[in-house]
Design brief:
globular; mainly alpha; DNA-binding; Arc Repressor Mutant, subunit A; two-stranded parallel sheet
DNA sequence: CTGATGACTATAG
DNA sequence: CCTATAGCCATCA
């Protein structure tokens, strides 16, 4: 089946999993939700997110780091504020993806269970 | 079925 | 930096 609703569930789960201080692109979220070419679907899902669900939608940006909303719009202002509130600089509607992009595997390596052993054998 | 529409993306110029 | 174009894919008139 894999209906729209279940896809939304997966999309929302992935977005919910983005750590504070990190961002992801629509394509990233789609890939992690098992929707390889579903970037547009991610956008649609976020657009239709129920209000009671408190989703960190502001951590989802375009692939090049620009906001999905035009600078000057209320949504862009809110998104910018939320990002900066968690330490992510957003200038001219843009975020440095190279620096703030969420990379689950890398995070696991650096901060996960393996990190301790890795740190011991590899200080600094 | 067809064409239009998006909180998208990659590539060119 | 920008715009233009062509893919993309679910949904809707």
């Amino acid at each position: 089946m894999t209906h729209w609703k279940s896809r939304c569930q997966r999309i929302y789960s992935v977005v919910q999993a983005i750590p504070s201080g990190r961002v992801a692109s629509y394509a990233d979220v789609a890939a992690l939700a098992n929707l390889p070419r579903g970037a547009r679907q991610v956008g649609r899902a976020l657009r239709e997110t129920p209000a009671d669900l408190r989703l960190p939608w502001h951590r989802v940006l375009r692939a090049d780091g620009r906001l999905a909303f035009a600078v000057g719009t209320e949504a862009a202002a809110e998104q910018t504020a939320q990002l900066q509130a968690e330490g992510i600089p957003c200038l001219r509607g843009r975020v440095d993806m190279a620096r703030y992009r969420w990379q689950p595997e890398l995070d696991e390596l650096l901060w996960g269970p393996l990190a301790a052993a890795h740190d011991q054998s590899h200080p600094q």
